Amino acid sequence: MDPEVEYLSGYRLENYERPSVAADIVVLTIRTSKPESFRKEPESKLSLLLVRRGVHPYKDHWALPGGFLRNGETVEQCALRETQEETSVTPAALMNVGVFSEPGRDPRGWIISNAFVSIVGSTEIGQRKKSDASDARWFDVSFEQDEKGEYRLTLTSEDERLNASLRKEKSRFGMTSFVIRDSGSLAFDHAAIIARALTALRGRVREFELVFDFLPEKFTLTELQTVQETVMNVSVVPANFRRKAAGLVEETDEYTEGAGHRPARLFRKKQIQ
């Protein structure tokens, strides 16, 4: 008998303790409110999709969409499936932001979570409830460092306001880890997952990576700048922005229409050969 076949025939996986594997997804979009006057610019906000848990543990707490890995699927497939169940769309891509395996992170037992960021166009959203969720809602995101060096994560939606505080632990290989000081009523370690995802996303958007994923195929330069400013929560000098964006976009022959504004030329992402 082949030595490997002989070894595997006697190997018993059930003899070894194994964790459950899950995926949690930071689903983000940019929501734009219509101004009362056409002379004013619309207000754009970075928003995060949360679900209110309908079962224990953390019953009635807000949590990221997510769930357990099913037999025969990869963690990426699990994340795509869970995102589709929560938003009714399948994202074009997911960005992995790390593995969360801290002992005790889930009171149900040894559960390891793979965290992803999903960017969804606001016009594609159609929320659906899962069996373990009693509500699904978009929250506007604020994530800032205060004068004491702590990070404040504030999520606001209608009559709900969640305030979490975190401390930066370490940064390695472009990823920052956080320790939760106050979860702000978020379930599990989801405040830390959100903080890491936002930090990673801001770094990518600063260099114009991922910024186009928030936009339709054709967009104005103002819309492109608005995405970068909204995600990073900073103001960018238009001239500097256009100089940096020039090599990444190309003009189309189309313009915006109506809305009382002067037509603006539409651009698209340049296809790099």
Which key terms come to mind for this protein?
alpha+beta, two-stranded antiparallel ribbon, 5 helices, 12 strands
Class by helix and strand content? Answer: alpha+beta
Unreliable stretches covering 5 or more consecutive residues: none
Choose one word for the global shape: globular
State the end-to-end distance: 52 Å
Query: What number is the mean pLDDT?
Result: 88
Using DSSP, what is the number of strands?
12
Tell me the series of helices and strands, N- to C-terminal: HEEEEHEEEEEEHHHEE
Rg result: 21 Å
The biggest beta sheet reads:
10 strands, mixed
Number of helical elements? 5
Helix content: 10-25%
Strand content: 35-45%
Q: How would you describe the oligomerization state of the chains in this entry?
A: single chain
Explain this structure.
With 273 residues, this protein is an alpha+beta fold. It has 5 helices and 12 strands. The strands form 2 sheets. Strands 1, 2, 3, 4, 5, 6, 7, 8, 9 and 10 form a 10-stranded mixed beta sheet that branches. The protein has a two-stranded antiparallel ribbon with strand order 11-12. The longest helix is centred in the last third of the chain and has 17 residues, at 190-206. It is globular, with a radius of gyration of 21 Å. The protein starts with a helix and ends with a strand.
Quick summary of this structure?
With 273 residues, this protein is an alpha+beta fold. It is 21% helix and 36% strand.
Task: Give the SSE layout.
Elements: H1 3-9, E1 20-33, E2 43-53, E3 62-63, E4 66-68, H2 75-87, E5 94-100, E6 111-119, E7 133-145, E8 151-157, E9 160-172, E10 175-182, H3 190-206, H4 221-232, H5 238-245, E11 249-255, E12 265-269
Parallel strand pairs: 1-6
Antiparallel strand pairs: 1-2, 1-4, 2-3, 2-7, 5-6, 7-8, 8-9, 9-10, 11-12
